[in-house]
Amino acid sequence: MNKLENLKQLLAGKFKIENFKFTHAVGDDVIEVPKEDVPALLLFLREGGQFDFLMDVCGVDFPNREKRFDVVYNLFNSKDSSRLRIKAQVGEGEKIGTAIPAYRGADWFEREAYDMFGIIFEGHPNLRKILTHHQFVGHPLRKDYDANEQQACTTSLPIHFNNEPGSPGDVLNDKYLPLNIGPSHTAMHGTLRVMAEMDGETIVRCNNEIGYLHRCFEKMAETHPYNQVIPYTDRLNYCSAPMNNIGYCKAVERLLGVEIPPKAQAMRVILAELSRIIDHTIALGTGAMDLGALTGFFYMFGMREKVYGLFEKLCGARLTVSMTRIGGMAQDAPEGWFDEVVALCKEIRRGTDEMAGMVLDNKIFIQRTRDVLPVSAQDAIQWGYTGPLLRASGVNLDLRKAQPYYGYDALDFDVPVGTNGDIYDRYLVRFEEMRQSVRIIEQVCKNVPGGDYTIRDKGIVLPEKKDVYGNIEGLMNHFMLIIKGLRPPVGEVYDATEAANGELGFYLVSDGSANPYRLKVRPPCFAIYQSFPTVVKGAMLADAIATVASMNLIAGELDR
Amino acid sequence: MHNDQVQGLVSHDGMTGTQAVDDMSRGFAFTSKLDAIVAWGRKNSLWPMPYGTACCGIEFMSVMGPKYDLARFGAEVARFSPRQADLLVVAGTITEKMAPVIVRIYQQMLEPKYVLSMGACASSGGFYRAYHVLQGVDKVIPVDVYIPGCPPTPEAVMDGIMALQRMIATQQPRPWKDNWKSPYE
User: Fold this and answer.
1) What backbone torsions phi and psi does residue A559 show, to the nearest 5 degrees?
2) Is the pLDDT of residue B6 over 60?
3) How many interchain CB pairs under 8 A, A with B?
4) Which one, out of A19, A33, A548, B118, has a CA that is 20 to 30 A from the CA of A279?
């Protein structure tokens, strides 16, 4: 009996399952339920221990349907790595109960769905705009909102706070000093804004505002053909661009039902692990810089430049590589590239040890980070933490082990896990992950599979240039694919990879046309950053800065 | 100092070592080319304020970093306070939400001030022809040099900075800046 049947029996007594619709779509279990049942169902699934993570909440707009919106919940169980998708239909102006009592981390995801679609979550304590600016009228991800309709913003919002039970909301207390940090501030990475009420050096309460880099990724994805979305994915987490390419292509490939050749898989693994390393170098380098250690940043950047050199050899670009295509890679690796990767691995290993000695053994660094604002495993799961931060809190969850893809199960590597989830542990985990990534790359490079770097399906992959210019089939093939576009079957899929910051998920809905109907990104640091006001409440200001640094917030994927 | 740059500095013949300092100072004639010396100083000591909002910010880190090292152009003192900077490097997408912030930052900078628009997004919105993206930072603040690329390579950024240095040295008129008015007033 499969998982879905089990679930059906489990729910049978508790809910009116004759109203539920159980389906199995492209490898995912899906339950469609009436919207009234959603909060109770989520609470039941969480408390029963079936699904401990709420990975994503999002809306989908079907303007011609009677009940216009789908609200989609993607759940994950860390014990057996199973996933479940719950969908409920909501009409315009109707309300659906909030999921916050079941999963604390639903907070910002629901606010986003409200901002983008106007779906109202009843009982949400703080249902206000999150990504668009406060003067923005309308809900941009609705199908009737034109992608190119800009609305000017003329002012910034004054300092404001979340409406929590027992808190005075936006009313400031005269006793305390209101403090605004960012968005233009060194410690705020250019686009974050933190507002706080201070009692001396202590934060009485705090709020964070995002959306300063909301560049409408999801709307852009809806207005571009599948392959042209790839450059947009580069700019999600731009510190490790290839990982986003890979995550997106993997989701589309799963919807198409194709498997990429072993060589493409190997190249993707190498690219992903190199990206993980350089992403961590930024996190560690700027993290140390935020604590006042500038030297580390220069050391780290030297290493990063060398990896850029490898990317440049592979595809000509340094940062935003757009190296993958749906069905494989854009081109083969040049001769000797894998040897260069192996040679660089030695340097990275040495550099990592050197950096680790410089940062982790530094007395000041230890005092600034050890036992500072720890997040317990339970809290981390509730908030939807994934990746290095979750592992620093002591939860052994890595999708490369839990849901292996691209042959990660055949590779020998360890998953570092922290003990108490303080800031020091986060840096420890990141350093160790860099060493493990080097191990992975060396193993893959040792025997790179031969064969083609992409599948050769005429409906998916463009022919090679020599065929386009050289023979009529190639030319026609190219013409048809460009004019008609790559068209996956009607359906939907949620697919996730282990990115540098955690679970990077893509929820893709296809209506059979050449553009994605809906593409929702589940950005790892979005879930992490929503916990910030709670985590730093009552802490020292300087510790809050250290926390922001350790969360490795990349605005590109935070705001999309 | 190169010869072409010190043309403004003219010393009179026939001075003796016994002349008083006061007289000596009279002996030097600073013609209208004083501007040239000032410009020379300015162009070689640009203090950038990196306004890194997105991917270009990461590439700008490369420019400041060990390999490309902007210090060679005298512009290594990155200041994160607009009061201390004279070159605003807009590195990354500016959204509608960010526009009032960057105008405020620009207004807080002291004269003389220059703006470098790094990358496609800052210059024109780039490939984000989208509802929340400002279609070029020059819609709200005056831009002196645009650097193409998505993101531009560090070489391109250095080329942009050298272009700005030439503009400063030749004291090019900047009508876009002189006629600028805050869009929010």
Assistant:
1) -100, -20
2) no
3) 138
4) B118
Q: Do the Cβ atoms of A507 and A72 come closer than 8 Å?
A: yes
| Contact present, B142 and B115 (Cβ < 8 Å) | yes
B80, B100, B128: residue with CB nearest A215:
B128
- The phi, psi pair for A463, rounded to 5°, reads -70, 165
Q: Is the pLDDT of residue A350 over 60?
A: yes
Q: Please give the Cα distance from B166 to A20 (Å, whole number).
A: 70
Interstrand relation of A82-90 and A502-510 (parallel, antiparallel or unpaired) = unpaired
Residue of A132, A146, A282 with shortest CB distance to B132: A132
Token digits of residue B152: 């531009």
Residue with tokens 């034109």: A146
Six token digits for residue A260: 């990429």
Mean residue pLDDT across chain A: 89
Model pLDDT for residues A221-271, shown as the tens digit of each residue: 999 999 889 999 999 988 889 999 999 999 999 999 899 999 999 999 999
Which is nearest to B59 in space by CA: B162, B164, B157? B157
- Name the 3-class secondary structure at A405: coil
ipTM above 0.95, yes or no: no
Distance from CA of B84 to the nearest CA of A (A): 14
A232: burial class by Cβ within 10 Å (0-12, 13-18, 19+)? buried
| pTM of the complete model | 0.89
Q: Establish if A185 touches chain B: CB-CB under 8 angstroms.
A: yes
